Amino acid sequence: MVGYGLCKFRENIMRKFLLPILTISILAGCSDTGIAKESSQLEEQKKYEWRLVTSWPKNYPGLGMAPERIANLVEEMSNGQMKITVYGAGEQVPAFGVFDAVSSGSHQMGHSGGYFWKGKVPAAQFFTSVPFGLTADEINAWVNRGGGLELWREIYEPFNIYPIPAGNTGTQMFGWFNKEINSLEDIKGLKMRIPGIGGEVLKEAGGIPVTLPGGELFTALQTGVIDATEWVGPYNDLTFGFHQAAKYYYYPGWHEPGPMLELLINIDAWNSLPKHLQVIIETAAKAVNQDMLDEYLARNNNALTELIEVHGVELRKLPDDVIEEFRLISEKILDDLAKEDETIGRVYESYSEFRKNVSAYHEISEDAFIEARNK
Predict the structure, then answer these.
(1) What is the DSSP secondary-structure string of 199-241?
(2) Cross-strand pairs, 48
(3) pTM for the whole structure
(4) Higher pLDDT, 57 or 8
(5) How far, in Å, CA of 114 to CA of 203, rounded?
(6) What percent of the chain stands above pLDDT 70?
(7) Residue 77 dihedral angles phi and psi, to the nearest 5°
(8) FRET label pair with 341: which of 75, 164, 319, 348, CA 20 to 30 Å apart?
(9) Confidence of residue 375 (pLDDT cuts 50, 70, 90)
(10) What is the pLDDT of residues 350-366, one digit of tens each?
(11) In what order do the strands lie in the sheet with 314-317?
(12) Helix (H) and strand (E) counts for the chain?
């Protein structure tokens, strides 16, 4: 009987206290699961409409089409959940107003080149191109696999911007000139459109660097506002008609060996996105980063042939002593900047170490092969 009474007591305790607690726990668990599921469904259904501003003319070949392709890929991969409207330079903000527009949040996205922001973020220039620096393949490797991306995002974070690699034109041409360049004396007093550290090198050599957006270059060259201009390479230069305003076309593009472009995203807007849309944007940008390089490599030589054979452009190589002087000036400028600015120093150290290592391997791989193939 005592055993029976004890069992009955336990049964009553279970009914009065444990079973209600267990029931509440089960219901709470079901409730959490239901809320999570409902929240996930809402995220999948919510539509996003963003605006993307660029530094390029609307639908401009290569440069201007890269953000259009990103927008199209994002819309397709998200099954229409996210729509990005792309605006060319001047349609909503000036060509050089992209960084501020994204930083302030007035626009969620932008597409441009980091060296345009050297007055705000001097180290940003390394993530576009610096003289005698990394080629397109090399800067892709440094950014994506060599620690560059982490540095890039660190220096943009105070400006509330999340950068993603989003295009590369490959090695550019030095540019268009109305007079021959036979020595460094011919650089002195020359007014040339050339951005970034390349412009600082020109200035140190006695030239006068000018920064202008692409859409203003032809008129500036034709009217004598500038004496020379660099832009990109044959594929893009042909579309702007520079051959109608200048006679000599100089190479190599020592100032921009492999310029990387950037997709800028406002961090607050980025953090508001569900994870799957963030992955879609990253994936679309990575695809376009390679696609753009492929486009320039496929188009440049045909455009160069047309410039020479149809339009009578005179293709010229810069004298070796001029190139060497530019290289020496460039090294000094970069070293001085690294000493003066702690952030530039860290970025430059990472960049230089990567260039040193990749160059050592290229000597017995790509460089050796190209030399053998072209004999």
Answers:
(1) HHHHHHTT-EEE---GGGHHHHHHTTS-SEE--S-HHHHHHHT
(2) 82
(3) 0.88
(4) 57
(5) 20
(6) 88
(7) -70, -25
(8) 164
(9) confident
(10) 999 999 999 999 999 99
(11) 208-210, 191-193, 228-229, 175-177, 248-251, 314-317
(12) 14, 11
By three-state DSSP, how is residue 168 classified?
strand
DSSP secondary structure letter of residue 311: T
Q: Could you tell me the pLDDT band of residue 303, with boundaries at 50, 70 and 90?
A: very high
**Looking up tokens 């160059």, which residue turns up?**
359
Confidence tier at 32 by pLDDT (50, 70, 90): low
Residues 6+ apart with CB under 8 A from 276: 44, 78
374: exposed, middle or buried (Cβ count in 10 Å: 0-12, 13-18, 19+): exposed
Residue with tokens 């020109």: 202
Q: Give the closest residue to 204 by CA, choosing from 335, 332, 340, 345.
A: 332
Rounded CA separation 202/330 (Å): 9
Q: Which amino acid is at 91?
A: E
The answer to which of 5-14, 50-59, 272-281 has the lowest mean pLDDT is 5-14
The pair of three-digit structure tokens given for residue 282, joined into one six-digit string: 């990253």
Six token digits for residue 165: 């690699």
Angle 155-156-157 (CA atoms, 0-180°, nearest 5)?
A: 95
Task: Specify the amino acid at residue 253.
Answer: G
Residue with tokens 């994870």: 275
Question: Which pLDDT band holds residue 33 (cuts at 50, 70, 90)?
Answer: low
Q: How far apart are CA 118 and CA 109, in angstroms?
A: 19
H or E element in which residue 167 lies: strand 161-168
CA–CA dist 218, 225 (Å, integer): 10
